[in-house]
């Protein structure tokens, strides 16, 4: 904990005046000036000494609401400072140092404190609380702090800045953008949400009946099957297995800047790709798909998330907060991952993308019911070639509208199912 006790403008003037009084008193023999100089010196010393016994801190604790910040979203920071002081102290100011990954106004007035001499067993300890809002600017893990409190003595002669070294690590997750739904395209994407809904709406006669088991609701009794079998039967809705989708985030550093491999938040293109990844997963999970997130070489980036399990999206965003690029370039291996297999929606997110890459992944598109390609840096006619192979390809601007780009990619070549 660092401390500094510089004099204020008033204190500097008082010190200069005291020295002048001593000099003039010595030169002209005026005793009154010497007394006045001594008085000023005593006031200065008293002010500085009082700063030694005031505002001693026990700890600084911070809480974030929500616990994980995200890019572009506000987060509330609650701060609690345990303070003790032997003498009454005037009000001051506080300032909490913010890292480059967070933006906000982390400063304000610090309240005056009463004397702690009669504070009993706790020694006059008080907890000072204040809060402020920050906005996530850069993905990654950043530290808030240290907290500094500036106070002056009761005479306004001297000031003291106390810097408390306690820091709080803050995780800033990528932004999750609300993307247009796939519900209107369930017939083409292979999803079963629409199929399940239709099946449940066909009436009890078309549902499968099974023998009654303890714990079954009496409201599910299938009376026609019960009369036919002469035993209690209950309705059992037939539902297909959860449809699956895959999101591929190509992390090969050759497709991004070198900074994307060494630090988070440094490459705007890679940051948009990570945001597009978690946003696409959120959209697919919301629409009922079980989603797996992999790299272009098949490495699993995040465990499978079941359809409808939206709380896991926050965990995924937290996991992706520290994701960086890697050395290998393996986009061409994608065709081997899906060779001889069929899948539901397949979202591929890449950085630099040239015509040779379009040729390399052309065989993958027929294996997906909804092949979507989002390229941050397409070159030449790469997207046109990918589209000719069956991809719904769009260029993604790091500063652009992700939702609009997603909607354009999903809507290309769609024939709506009536």
In short:
With 418 residues, the protein is of the alpha/beta class.
How is this fold's topology laid out?
Blueprint: E1 2-4, H1 9-28, H2 31-52, E2 56-65, E3 69-70, E4 74-84, E5 92-96, E6 102-104, E7 107-110, E8 126-136, E9 140-144, E10 147-152, E11 159-164, E12 168-173, H3 186-189, H4 193-200, E13 208-211, H5 223-229, E14 233-236, E15 244-249, H6 259-262, H7 268-286, E16 290-294, E17 300-305, H8 311-319, H9 334-337, E18 343-353, H10 355-361, E19 368-378, H11 382-388, E20 392-395, H12 402-411
Parallel strand pairs: 3-12, 15-16, 15-18, 18-19, 19-20
Antiparallel strand pairs: 1-11, 2-4, 4-8, 5-7, 5-10, 6-8, 9-12, 10-11, 13-14, 16-17
Helix pairs in contact: 1-2, 10-11
Number of helices: 12
Structural class: alpha/beta
Helix fraction, binned, reads 25-40%
Fourth-tier CATH superfamily name of the largest domain: von Willebrand factor, type A domain
How far is it from the N-terminal to the C-terminal residue, by CA? 69 Å
Q: Estimate what percentage of residues fall within beta strands.
A: 25-35%
Write down the overall mean pLDDT: 83
Strand order of the largest sheet: 17-16-15-18-19-20
Main beta sheet: 6 strands, mixed
Number of strand segments: 20
What is the CATH fold-level name of the largest domain? Answer: Rossmann fold
In the CATH hierarchy, the architecture of the largest domain is 3-Layer(aba) Sandwich
